TrEMBL record:
This is Phosphoribosyl transferase domain containing 1. One of its GO terms (cellular component) is cytosol. Residues 46-165 form the Phosphoribosyltransferase domain. It comes from the Eukaryota. Pfam families: Pribosyltran. InterPro entries: HGPRT, PRTase-like, PRTase_dom. It comes from Chelonoidis abingdonii.
Amino acid sequence: PGVNHMDITIYGKGMYDLPGYSLDLFTYPQHYYGDLEYVLIPHGIIVDRTECLAKDIMQDIGDNNIVVLCVLKGGYKFCADLVEHIETFSRNSERSISMKVDFVRLKSYHNDQSTQDMQIIGGEDLSKLTGKSVLIVEDIVGTGRTMKALLNNIEKYKPKMIKVARDLLVKTTSQPDGYRPDCKCL
């Protein structure tokens, strides 16, 4: 109730079935020599996809100011790049979107095993999300249990809208719960 979950899909089918690119096409640190077979997704494609995702988010959020909730630690770089692209689009468009960025850590693993309990560490008082448009930025979605728990927790504060953007991976697990992010880079 009161929360709008929309899909923004910007990757094609079979994206993860790509054979990869020859290492001869790239420069990479010498300490990786012998450990890599190919490059699956070049950096330029990631930058382009992040920019496209920012554009889609700008169109989707309309004139709403947003609170970006970055899930640390993995989501930090992707979040910084995504926010930078959104700010660039905002500066160069007819409307200006105000963004506030906050950070949380989610703990739901113990000894590499996903648990039922989730702790939210850090972040300001989540009650400040009441009536706001919230964009959660995450790097990897595993079982989806942690993200669902975070969404349930945030929904208690009745935000105007919640979107979830993730970077590259939806981790394949033996116990997926069917959760998929709203916005995907790849």
